[in-house]
Design goal:
The protein is of the alpha/beta class and 166 residues long. It is built from nine helices and seven strands, in the order βαβαββαβαβααααβα. The two termini are 18 Å apart.
Length: 166
Amino acid sequence: MKKILIFGNSGSGKSTLAKHLSLKEDLAHLDLDTIAWLPTNPPQRKKFTDSKNEIDRFIDTHSRWVIEGCYTDLLELALDSVTDIIFMNLSTQDCIANAKQRPWEAHKYTSKEAQDANLAMLIEWISQYTKRNDTFSHLAHNSFFQNYSGVKHMIMSNSDSSKLFQ
């Protein structure tokens, strides 16, 4: 039974790969963005225990799944159940280019215009990936990847992503 974690910078292709795998492998798909935040403006993280309960419920409900996101603290909650991890370790430039071409994410934004209104903030966030030391950072993702002893893959380019699970 496939149980996959996908993580990396914003714009690295996590959602695209997760959707592809979900369809190809018949996996339930959980985007951690949908359980990590309260519906407030400005956004605020949910209580960790609330997000944990939603992850536990998802894992208990599905025997085959893919979970994707940039939240190392939340990814760690699923680590005991996982069969594979995938680190989307694209360059900052590739992540920014991907973000500029991102299709409308209807589960996150009320319109494509609302999504695009956040693009400048997203590009700034992406550009800080290697400078931060939080749960969303390259440092945290690389440590998570290096410390995992099971089946793992590192994707370094958009073309690598398409080759991995053809």
